[in-house]
Amino acid sequence: TTTSSSFTAHLSASSSTLAYDREFLRTAPGLLMVTEIVLGLLVWTLIAGTEYFLYPAFGWVMFVAVFYWVLTIFFLIIYMTMTYTRIPQVPWTMVGLCFNGSAFVLYLIAAIVDASSVTKDLDSHNYNSWAASSFFAFVVTSCYAGNTYFSFISWRSRTLQ
Fold this sequence. Notes:
The protein is mainly α and 161 residues long.
């Protein structure tokens, strides 16, 4: 006969209950999150490939882009693995609304700062990268605005119940 430790039994039981939501990527919020990740990566890599550290405005854009890129990946993993169902103490609709709302506001500020800082006089060598990052920053801002709307609808439907 073989025996297994209670730790091994608990580990195998808990890992098998981890769910995977394949349908989340087919929803509008899921598609927007993937778009935010891909285009947010473009925003900060286009700036990171330049000498942005010489200009403080681009440092702010880098901070916002990298910070929300990492957090968006984190939230995508939470939604894809349905971890939110295992932690019911957290008000996930409120967390999602605050996250997307703050991402929208700070990305909007960063996109405006990015666009207003791009001039040919500043450094013509990096002009195209900074201009492209500015464009993609506004696209990512609109994605976060869309996700803020969906988060608000979700939050509103939970508070009315």
